[in-house]
Amino acid sequence: MLNTTELLAIPALPLIASLIVGLFGWALKEKLSHTITTGSVILSAVLSVHVFTQVLGGASFYGNFWTWMLSDTFVVPVGMMIDQLTAIMMITVTVVSACVHIYTIGYMHGDPGYSRFFSYISGFTFSMLVLVMGNNFFTLFFGWEAVGLVSYLLIGFWFNRESANFAALKAFIVNRVGDFGFLVGILAIWYYFGSFDYREVFAAVPAFVAQGDTLHLFSWEMSAITFICLSLFIGAMGKSGQVPLHVWLPDSMEGPTPISALIHAATMVTAGVFMVARCSPMFEYSETALAAVILVGAVTAWMCATIGLVQNDIKRVIAYSTCSQLGYMFVACGVSAYSVGIFHLMTHAYFKALLFLAAGSVIHAVMAEQDIRKMGQLRKYMPITYITMLIAALALSGVPPFAGFWSKDLIIESVGVRELGWIGDFAYFAVLSGVFMTAFYTFRMFFLTFHNSNRVPEKTRSHLHESPKVITIPLMILAVGAFASGAWGVLGLDIANPEIVNGYFGTSLFVLDVHNPLLAIAEEGHHAWYHFVFSAPFWLAIGGIGLAFAMYFRETDMPGKLATAAKPVYTFLLNKWYWDELYERILMRPAQCLGNILWQKGDLGMIDKGIIHGGVVGGVLAGMTRMRDAQTGYVYHYAFAMVIGVFGALTYLVLKG
Amino acid sequence: MTPVNFPLPNVVPLIPEMFVATMAMFILMLDLFLAKEKKVWGGYLAILTCVAAGGLTLMVGSAESVSAFYGFFVLDAFSSYAKLLIYAGTALAVILSLDYIKEEFGVGEYYTLMLFAMLGMMIMASAPNFVTMYLGLELMALCTYVLVGFQRDVLRSSEAGLKYFILGSLASGFLLYGISFLYGVTGSFDFATVGSGIAHSGSGARFAVLLGLVFVIAGLAFKISLAPFHMWTPDAYEGAPTPITAFMSVAPKVAGLVILIRVLVDALPSLQVEYITIFSWLAVLSMAVGNLAAIAQRNIKRMLAYSTIGHVGFIMLGVIAGNADGYAGVLVYMTIYLFMSMGAFAVIVLMNREGIQGELLDDFAGLSKVRPGYALAMGLYLFSLAGIPFLGGFWAKYVVFIAAIESGHLYLAIIALLFSVVGAFYYIRVVKYIYFDDQRVEFNFVENRLMQATVAVTAVAVVAIGIFPQPVINICKAALGGII
Fold first, then answer.
1. Would you state the pLDDT for residue A500?
2. In a domain, A102, yes or no
3. Is the pTM of this model over 0.90?
4. Does A623 reside within a domain?
C-alpha cells in the first residue's frame, strides 16, 4: 500500500505553487516565482519516481478521499487509483514537466507574463496528474477539461497577437467537439453501469456485454459497449489531434515553445492514448471500436507524415510529426497492443519534448525566426543543441538503439501479426511508409537547420550563440531519456517484452488472449538482437535519412526541382490537404451565417426588442412609476395606506368566514 | 391572615438586560464629565457593552427554556440567538457612528439611546406575553424616533423623525387595539394561554379574534416594514443619520421578526390558515413595492430602504412556510442580511464625511479606481444582496425559498424568484457605477480603522458563508429548538 499523504502531495504541490504564483505573481520577483513552481514540480517528480519504484515492487493504491458531488444516487467521489499504468504516466508527466520548468526559466526570462506562465504550467502539471491518477471517469473528465483550459490559456499566452488568439479559440472549439463525445461516453457509462468508478465499471463489463444491450443511433444499430467506446474515442480524437479533429494541434504552435513541448507533444495530447489504454477492459469487447481506433490512427499517422514532408516552419514540422506519432500510438491500442502504445507514449514524450525544446533553443538563437529556410549551419554556434537534437531526431526516426526504435518497431510488428482484413493491411502500409516519411522530414528539418548553407540574415548572424545552461541542461536530461528510455523499457522493465506477456503492466491493462499481438509475436519465436537488420522499418528509416541527406545535407537544387515536377502534390501537401479550407467552407461559414441570423433576428429582434423592451421593461417601469408616485411624502397618505391594509385584510377574512 | 410571600424573582436570566440598562445610564453620566474631544469614549464603551452583553448572554443562555418574573420573561435558545444578532447589529452601527457623530451635539445621549433601543429589542426577543412585548417594543420605538430625528438642525432629519413618530404611534395603537381584543376573548396576555383560549373559543368570538389577529399583525408588520405598513421606511431611512439607518435596517427587524414568530407560534397557532393568507399578500406586495420602487431611486439610502422592504418580503416566505425549516430560514436570512447590510452601510459611511456625499448613486462612480478595496467589498455586498451564488445572500434566499416550496407555496416562491431578478437590476446598477463609470465627485474618505475592519470582516463573512453555509444553517436550526 502506498502512502496516501505522498500520493496527495504529488498533485497538490504544483497546484499550491500555481495558486500562489498565479494570485500573487504581480508581487513576486521572477526568481521567487520560478523557484516556487519549479521547486514544487521537481519535488513532485521525485515523489513520483519514489512511487514508481514502489509500484515496481508490487505496491498499488486504490481509494476515495472525499465526495465531490452528491445528488440522490449520483455520487462523484474524488479518489486515486495507482497502478503500473498510472505510475509510468506520472513519472513521464512530472519529469518532462520539471525539465520544461527549468528550461522556461531561461526561455521566458524578461517576459511580462513570466509569473503567469509559471502559474499556468504548474497548474497544467496538477491537472494532468489528476487526469492520470484519478480512480473514476469524473476525475478523468475534470483533468481532461482542466488540461484543455490550460492549453487554451497557453496557446493564447501572447494575447496581443491576433494569430495566437485565433489558434487558442480554434483549439478550444475543436476540443469542444471531442469533449462532447467524451462526455456522452461518460454519461452513457453512468446510464448503463450506474457508476463512474473504474473498478466497478470494468468489473461489470463482461456481464454487461454478455447481456447484449443494443441501441439505435439514427438507423444504425450498435451494441451499447461499442457506443460507449466510440463516444469516448471521439474525445480522444479531439484531445490527441487525430484526423479529422487534428487541425488545432499545428496551430497551437502559436504558444511559447516550452508549451509546445510540454502540452502539445509530451503530455496533454497523449491523454487520449492513456484514456483508451485505461479503458482497455471496455475497448477489448468492441471489435468495431477497435477497428475505428486503428483506422483513425493509421490515417492520421500517414496523412500528417505527408504534410510534415513539406512544411517550412520548424515547429510545425514537429507538430505534424506529433500528430503522426499519436496516430502510431492509437494504431497500437487498436490492435490491442496497449502496452506498446503506452510505451511509445513514454519514449515519444522524451524525444519529442527534447525536439521541441531544442527547436526552442534554435528559435531563441535566431531571434524568434521559425522558418527553416532562414537557418542553416547552426551546429557551429550551438553544439549542445545540435547534439541533443540529433539524438532526438534519431530517436524519432526509429534508428536503433535510440528510444523511438524500440517502441515503434514493436508497434509495426504488432500490426503485422494481427489478421484484421483491409483495415489491418492499410494500417500496416501506413505505419511502414510512415517510418520512411518520418525519417525524411525529421532529417530534412535537421539538416536545413544545422547543416546546409548558412542562410541566417546578416543582422541576426552576430547574435548567434549557444543558449545558457538553464536551457541546455534540461536538453541534456531529456537526451538521456530520448536515448535510453526505449532500451530501458524493453530490457529493464519488460514493458511489452514479447517474452513476458504484459510484462511490466501486469493487470493494469486488459487484453483478450485472442487479440493479443504480443502473444502472437512470442509464438513466432525469439528474436536475436541483430534481428532489426532484417526488418523493413530499420531500412525504411535509413532510407529516409539517406534521402534527406542527399537532398538537404548540402545545398542542392533537388528539392526545388522535385517541387516543380510534382507541383500539384506539393501544393496539396503544403496546404495541409486543405483541411482548414474545407472546414471554413462547410462549417465556419454556415455557422457564422446561422449565428448572424439568430443574433440579429432572434436575439436583437425578438428577445430584445419584442419581449424585453416591449413587455418586461415596460411592465417593470410602469410598476416602478406607480410605486414611486405612491410615496407622496404626506403622513396622512401613509396612514391611509396602513388603514386600508388593515381594512382589506379584515374584509377578506370576514367575508371568507 | 396569610403571611405575604414575595420571594426575590430569579434575576439570573435578566443579567444581560440589567447590564445593558446600567451601562446605558453610565454612559449618559460619563458623557457629562468627558472633554469634548474625548466624547468618542462613550462610543467605545457602547461597543464594549454590546460585546460584554454577548458574553453574558452566552453565559446565562441555555438550550432549555427558562421562565422568570412569573412568566413575564423567557430565556431560550431562540431569544439568545436573536439577542446575539441584535448585539452585532448595534455594535456595528455604533462603530459606524464613531466618526459620524463625534462633532455633533449631545454625543452621550446618542449612544445611550442606541443602548436603550437595544434593550427594548432584547426585551422583545424574550417576551412571552403581550405586555412585555409591548414594553420592549415601545422602548425600542421611542429611542429610534429620537435617533432618526437626531440631527435637529437638518430639516430632512427632523421631518423624518416626526413622520416616523406619528405613524409609529398609529401602529402602536393598532397593536394595543388588537391585543385588547385577544385579551377580551381569552382573558390573558400570556401567549400560550391566549393560544389555547382562542383554540377553545366558540364561533361567537370569531369576529373578535379576527380583529385581534389583523390589528396585531398590522402593528408588528409596521416594525418590520412590511407593505402596506412600510411607507415610513424610505423617508426615515433617508432622513436619519446614516449609522442609524444602518442600525434600523437590521436590529429592529430581527427583534420584530422574532417576536412575530413567537406570537404566531405561541398565541395564534389555531389561526394559521388565516395569517398565512394575509402574509402571502403582504409578502407579494412587499416584494413588488421594494423591488420596483428601488429602481426609481437616486439616493442609495432610499434605495436600500426599498431593498429592505423587498428583503422582508422574501423573509416572509419563511414565516409563511410555518414550520421549523421556515423559521430557521428567517434566522439564517437575518444573520446573512446583517453582514450584507451593515457592510454596505459601512462603505456609505466611509464615503460620507460631510453628511451628504456618498448618498447619491452617482457619487459611487469610479470608486474602483480610487479605492479598489472598498469597491470590491461593496460589489460583494451588492451581488450578495442580489442573491448571486456563491455569496451569502444566495443561501439566505435559498433556504426560505426551499422552505416555502416544500410547504406547498410554490407559486409564492416563483413570484419571489421573479422579483429577485428585478431586484438584481438595481443592485448591479451600483456595481456598474463603481466599476465602469468615471469619477464625478471628489472622494473624501473617513479614515477609521474600526470601520475599515468592519468592511473587511463583513465582506469576508459574506464570502465565507457563501462557500460554507451549513454551519450558519445548523446554528439557526438549533436556536429554534426552544420554541418548536
1. 57
2. no
3. no
4. yes
